[in-house]
Write a structure and sequence with these properties.
Layout lengths: L14 E4 L5 E6 L5 H9 L3 H8 L8 H8 L6 E8 L2 E11 L12 E8 L8 H15 L4 E6 L4 H8 L5 E6 L2 E7 L4 H23 L3 E5 L8 H11 L5 E5 L7 E2 L2 E4 L11 E4 L6 H11 L3 E4 L9 H16 L3 E3 L5 E4 L6 E4 L8 E8 L2 H13 L4 E6 L8 H9 L6 E6 L5 H12 L4 E5 L17 H10 L3 E3 L2 H13 L7 E6 L2 H13 L3 E2 L3 E2 L6 H13 L5 E6 L9 H14 L5 E5 L3 H8 L37 E2 L2 H21 L13 H12 L7 E3 L2 H9 L8 E3 L3 H11 L3 E5 L13 E5 L2 H15 L2 H4 L1 E5 L5 E10 L3 E8 L2 H4 L4 E5 L4 H9 L18 H17 L3 E11 L4 E3 L2 E6 L16
Helix pairs in contact: 6-11, 10-14, 11-12, 12-13, 14-19, 15-19, 16-17, 17-18, 22-23, 26-27
C-alpha cells in the first residue's frame, strides 16, 4: 500500500495550479487512502460524463475498480487528482502499454491516458492542467507517447488533446477517435502552456482587484485598528460593489454605516474578496470560514508571520497551504492592501486613507508597505495617478510575477512600476518582464541584495550585477532608488518615447543649461549646445524656443531649464501654459522641465489643462502606446502634464532610461533565433552523460576528466586543444614531439591555473633546448612537478584571451557569461550575462556589452578578431546546456580569439543528475 507518508510516494509531483477562471486547485498523486474520495467524486459525475469515460453506461465503481484506480506503482501505472478543499474535482491516469496495446513495463515507452472531470468544474481548464502534469510525470518515467481513445461526441476532451501543442496523430477506428501524442515539448506546446499560464494568473489577480463584493473581517466596534481603517477606506472610496463588516461580537446592524454580521456565513450572499485583520492565531479559522463560503481571494493585513521568526514562518507556510486548498489566492500576509481606481470599481482595500489616488496610467507594485506609502505620496505630490496598486507584504502567494501577468494586457496600465525586495524566480520574472516590456515599460527598483524576513523565496547565487544584466536583457528599466522609480515613471507615463539620444537644452540660465549638458554626457546621451534664453526670457520666448526645438530634425527630446524671475513669480502659470501649447503644437517628442525653486511651476505643470495633444504616429516596429489619459476617462491624471524635476541629473537620468528603453523596444521588434548546427550530436551527448552519471548519487556533482570533457564538448562542435601531461622533462619533450614545435608549457595546479601573471606559462618554445630550460626554470621557481602538474600544448595563433562560462543557478536557471580573461573580468567585474537558450542576437549583444569590448574590434589600430566565431562558440555552448540539464557548469578558459578562428585551450565541465522538473515542466504555483 502507498500513502503520502511512504518513501515511494512521489511528493515532488504535488503542485498548486491556477485554473482558467483564476481559482486554484491542488494536483497530487492518488494513493490507497483516497478510496472514499474517489467514490464520492464519481457519484457527483453525470451519467453522460461517465459514458464518455467508459464508452458505456457505468453508474458506479465496483470494489475492483476502486482498488485499480487507487493502487499505483508510480512508474507503469500512475493516477493524479485535482483537488479543492481536499475533495477530488478531476482525475487522470496512465497505464504503460506495449506495441500490442497490453500492459507493459519499461523499456516500453507508450502509455494509455484517460481523464474524468466533475461536471461542475468542466470548462475551468482542469483537464488541460492535469494533462500537463501527467505528461511531465510520464517523461520522467521514460514514457514518450500517450495514446487515447475518445468518443467522437466528446468534443471537449478531443479539444483538450488537440490544443495542447504536442505533435500528434489522429485516426478514426472502431467508432472512436484514436489520438497519439508525442510528449516531447515543442515550441508550440510551450507557447500554449505559457499563454494559458498568463490568462489564468491574470484572471486570478483581476478577481482580487475587481470584486463584486468585499467583507472586512476583524472590524472593531470602537473604530480603532487596521480592520476599521480598511473598512472606512473602502466605504469612503466609493466602492461600487457590496460591502460588509464582520465582527463576532457585533450587536448592531451597522458599523461605520456598513452592514455588519457576526460571521461571514451570516451574510447570506456571495463574497468575492475578504480583507482579514484579526490576530494571526485566529486567521486559520477565518480562512476556513471564507473557504467554506466560497470567497475567491483574501487580503491578509494581519502580521505575525514570516517577518516574526521561525514560528511565524511555519504559520505562514500553513496559511498558504490552507488558502490554496480552498481554491483561493492570497495577498499578504502582513500586507498593506490593494487599490483599483477603475471608475466602475473604485476599490481601496488598503490602509491608505481617503481620498484614494487619482485615476492614472501607472500600475504600482511594492512588497514593503512603508515604501508603498512613500511612493503613493510622491506620485500624489507630483500630480500623477494610478491604475492599480498592490502592496503584497510577505507575498507568500501573489507576487510581482502575478501582477505582471495582469498588467500585460490591462488596457488601463501604460507603465508598470515595481519595488521588489526579492525576485523569487529571476528566470520567470525576466521571461514575463520581457514580454510585458515589449508592450509597455517595466521599471524596477530593488530594495536589497539579501532576502528580508518574511520573504520565504528561493535564493539565487547570482551576484546583483548579474541579475541586473538579466533584467536589462529583458527590457526592464532598472533603477537604484524609489526617487528614480518615480522620476522615470512620471516621464514614461506622460511623454512619448524618444527616437534617439539627441537632446536639445533650452532655458533662462546658462549655468543650469551647462549642468544639464554635463549630465547628458554622463548618461551617454548626445546633447546639443544649450540655448540660453537669458534671465529676461518671457513665457512667450520659452514657447517659441520649445516649438523650434521640437520641430527640428536634429533632436529627439528636449530639456527645459528654468530659474525664478527676480520679481515675477506669478508668471509660473503663464510659463506652464506656454510650454503646454508648444508641446500641443509639435507633439511626438518627450519634454522634461528642470526647475530651481519654482514650486508654483511644478504645481502648474502637474495640473491638467484640457485634452491631451494628438498622439504621434508610432515608430516602425513599435506598437503605439496610449498617452496618459488618452483613453477618455474623465478626470484621468496627467492628460497634458509635463514632468518637472528639481535637479538636472534627475531629469536627464529619466530621459536616458527612456532612450535606452526605446532602443531596446526597436531591437526587440526583430526577434533573434536559436540556430541549428548539423554537426551537433545530441543523442551521443545524452548517452555519454547517462553513462558518466550511472554510478553518481542523486545529489552529487561530478567533475569530468579532461578526455570526457573534450569528448562531450566535441559532440557540440566545441574543440578543446589537446594538452599532454609532462610529469618530467623527458615526458615534456616526448609530448612536444607528438604535437610539433613550437609549443607552450604551463601548469595546471588549481592554485596556478589561468594565472599567467605568476609565471606559470611559457610560450613559443621552438626546440627541445628551450623546452628543457623552461621546464627547469618553471619547477625551480614554482615547485615540484607533482605540485605544478605541467602540460604541453601546441601553440595557437595569437589573439585576445577571453573567458566563456555557463552555470546553472537554482533560481535563474542556465546563465551564459562572457568576459576577457585576467584582470578585466576578475578585478573589474567586466562580465556580461544572458539567459539560456541564447539567440543569435543575444550572442552578438553579449560580446559587445562588456566595457572592454573595443579590444575585440581593433582598438588603437590593432587587428579586429573573429567575433563571428566567438558568437558561434557561445551559441553552441548555450545549446549544450539547454539540451542537457545534467551539464550544470562549464568553464572555457582561456578562449583565444584570433583574426581568423579561435582556440579553446582549457575546459572544465561539471555534471549532475538534473532536477525532476525543469523549465519545460508543467505550470505550478511556487511552493516556499
Amino acid at each position: 500500500m502507498t500513502t503520502e507518508s511512504d518513501p515511494s510516494y512521489p511528493a515532488h509531483w504535488e503542485a498548486d495550479v491556477v485554473l482558467r477562471d483564476g481559482g486554484t486547485a491542488r494536483i497530487r498523486p492518488i494513493t490507497t487512502a483516497d478510496a472514499g474520495r474517489l467514490v464520492s467524486f464519481y457519484e457527483q459525475v453525470s451519467d453522460e460524463s461517465k459514458y464518455y469515460r467508459f464508452f458505456a453506461p457505468y453508474p458506479r465503481l465496483s470494489d475492483r475498480d476502486v482498488h485499480r484506480f487507487t493502487h499505483h506503482d508510480y512508474v507503469d501505472r500512475v493516477g493524479l487528482a485535482a483537488t479543492i478543499g481536499g475533495e477530488f474535482i478531476g482525475t487522470v491516469r496512465y497505464d504503460r502499454i506495449g506495441p500490442d496495446g497490453r500492459p507493459a513495463t519499461a523499456p516500453a515507452d507508450e502509455a494509455e491516458v484517460a481523464f474524468l472531470v466533475q461536471d461542475a468544474h468542466q470548462g475551468r481548464g482542469v483537464a488541460s492542467a492535469l494533462l500537463e502534469h501527467i505528461g511531465a510525470v510520464a517523461r520522467e518515467r521514460g514514457i514518450r507517447r500517450f495514446a487515447a481513445e475518445v468518443l467522437p461526441a466528446n468534443t471537449k476532451m478531443i479539444k483538450v488533446f488537440t490544443d495542447v501543442g504536442y505533435q500528434q496523430k489522429r485516426s478514426f477506428e472502431d467508432g472512436s477517435v484514436h489520438l497519439t501524442l508525442d510528449l516531447e515539448p515543442t515550441a508550440e506546446s510551450l507557447a500554449v502552456q505559457r499563454a494559458r499560464e498568463q490568462r489564468a494568473e491574470a484572471r486570478s489577480v483581476q478577481r482580487l482587484l475587481a470584486p463584486g463584493s468585499v467583507a472586512v473581517i476583524g472590524v472593531s466596534r470602537s473604530g480603532a485598528g487596521v480592520g476599521a481603517a480598511a473598512l472606512r477606506n473602502l466605504r469612503d472610496s466609493g466602492f461600487h460593489g457590496h460591502l460588509y463588516a464582520v465582527n463576532e461580537q457585533v450587536g448592531l446592524d451597522l458599523l461605520d454605516g456598513v452592514r455588519a454580521y457576526r460571521t461571514i456565513d451570516a451574510i447570506g450572499a456571495p463574497v468575492d474578496l475578504a480583507v482579514i485583520a484579526v490576530p494571526a492565531d485566529r486567521v486559520p479559522e477565518v480562512v476556513a470560514a471564507c473557504g467554506e463560503h466560497g470567497v475567491q481571494g483574501l487580503v491578509v493585513l494581519s502580521a505575525g508571520y514570516g517577518e516574526s521568526g521561525p514560528a511565524g514562518l511555519a504559520r505562514q507556510r500553513e496559511l498558504v497551504r490552507q488558502v490554496r486548498s480552498y481554491g483561493m489566492r492570497l495577498i499578504g500576509p502582513n500586507a498593506y492592501g490593494v487599490i483599483n481606481t477603475a471608475p466602475e470599481v473604485e476599490l481601496n482595500a488598503s490602509l491608505t486613507p481617503a481620498p484614494m489616488p487619482m485615476r492614472g496610467r501607472i500600475g504600482l507594485f511594492t512588497q514593503s508597505g512603508a515604501i508603498g506609502i512613500a511612493l503613493l505620496s510622491a506620485l500624489l505630490r507630483r500630480g500623477e495617478g494610478l491604475s492599480s496598486f498592490v502592496s503584497a507584504g510577505n507575498r507568500a502567494d501573489v507576487s510581482g510575477n502575478d501582477i505582471l501577468q495582469y498588467w500585460y494586457d490591462d488596457e488601463a496600465t501604460d507603465v508598470a512600476l515595481m519595488y521588489l525586495e526579492t525576485l523569487g524566480n529571476p528566470r520567470k520574472f525576466t521571461r514575463l518582464a520581457r514580454r510585458t516590456a515589449a508592450e509597455k515599460p517595466v521599471v524596477v527598483a530593488r530594495g536589497g541584495r539579501h532576502t528580508p524576513a518574511g520573504h520565504v523565496v528561493p535564493g539565487t547565487r547570482l551576484p546583483d550585477a548579474t541579475v541586473s544584466d538579466l533584467l536589462r536583457q529583458a527590457g526592464v528599466i532598472r533603477v537604484d532608488t524609489v526617487t528614480e522609480l518615480v522620476d522615470v515613471g512620471l516621464l514614461l507615463a506622460a511623454q512619448p518615447l524618444p527616437a534617439g539620444p539627441r537632446i536639445a537644452i533650452l532655458g533662462n540660465s546658462e549655468s543650469l543649461g551647462v549642468l544639464t549638458y554635463d549630465a547628458c554626457l554622463a548618461q551617454g546621451l548626445r546633447p546639443l549646445p544649450p540655448l540660453d534664453l537669458t534671465t529676461a526670457a518671457s513665457p512667450a520666448d520659452f514657447r517659441a524656443a520649445l516649438v523650434s526645438a521640437l520641430a527640428s530634425d536634429d533632436c529627439d527630446a528636449v530639456v527645459v531649464t528654468a530659474i525664478p524671475w527676480v520679481s515675477e513669480h506669478a508668471l509660473a502659470d503663464d510659463l506652464a501654459d506656454s510650454l503646454r501649447e508648444a508641446v500641443a503644437e509639435v507633439p511626438g517628442k518627450p519634454v522634461a522641465v528642470v526647475h530651481v525653486e519654482l514650486g508654483e511651476l511644478v504645481d502648474a505643470l502637474s495640473a491638467t489643462r484640457g485634452p491631451a495633444p494628438a498622439a504621434p504616429l508610432p515608430e516602425p516596429g513599435l506598437r503605439p502606446r496610449p498617452r496618459a489619459g488618452a483613453a477618455g476617462e474623465a478626470g484621468a491624471a496627467g492628460e497634458d502634464r509635463i514632468p518637472s524635476y528639481p535637479a538636472a541629473e534627475r531629469a536627464v537620468r529619466a530621459i536616458a532610461e527612456a532612450v535606452r528603453y526605446g532602443q531596446w523596444r526597436r531591437a526587440a521588434a526583430e526577434a533573434g533565433h536559436v540556430p541549428e548546427y548539423e554537426d551537433i550530436d545530441e543523442p551521443g551527448a545524452a548517452a555519454q552523460l547517462a553513462r558518466l552519471l550511472a554510478d553518481v548519487d542523486g545529489g552529487a556533482v561530478l567533475t569530468l576528466a579532461e578526455w570526457d570533457a573534450r569528448e562531450l564538448l566535441g559532440r557540440y562542435g566545441i574543440r578543446v586543444l589537446h594538452a599532454l601531461p609532462a610529469p618530467t622533462p623527458d615526458a615534456a619533450v616526448r609530448a612536444a614531439g607528438i604535437l610539433g614545435y613550437p609549443v607552450a608549457l604551463k601548469t595546471t595546479a588549481p592554485h596556478l591555473r589561468h594565472r599567467a601573471d605568476l609565471g606559470g606559462v611559457r610560450l613559443d618554445l621552438r626546440n627541445e633546448a628551450e623546452l628543457r630550460l623552461s621546464y627547469e626554470d618553471l619547477t625551480g621557481l614554482l615547485g615540484k612537478p607533482s605540485e605544478l602538474q605541467p602540460v604541453v600544448q601546441a601553440m595557437v595563433p595569437r589573439g585576445v584571451d577571453t573567458v566563456v562560462r555557463s552555470v546553472i543557478d537554482p533560481a535563474a536557471g542556465a546563465v551564459l557569461s562572457f568576459g576577457l580573461a585576467g584582470v578585466a573580468s576578475e578585478l573589474l567585474g567586466d562580465t556580461a550575462h544572458r539567459l539560456v537558450p541564447a539567440t543569435d542576437r543575444d550572442a552578438a549583444g553579449l560580446i559587445r556589452s562588456i566595457r572592454t569590448a573595443p579590444l575585440l574590434f581593433g582598438w588603437r589600430g590593432s587587428a579586429a578578431v573573429d567575433t563571428p566565431a566567438l558568437e558561434e562558440l557561445l551559441l553552441r555552448l548555450s545549446r549544450l546546456v539547454d539540451d542537457h540539464p545534467e551539464v550544470i557548469d562549464v568553464s572555457l578558459e582561456p578562449v583565444v580569439v584570433a583574426t581568423e578562428g579561435l582556440s579553446v585551450l582549457s575546459a572544465t565541465v561539471r555534471v549532475a543528475h538534473p532536477p525532476a522538473r525543469g523549465d519545460l515542466g508543467p505550470r505550478t504555483l511556487p511552493s516556499y
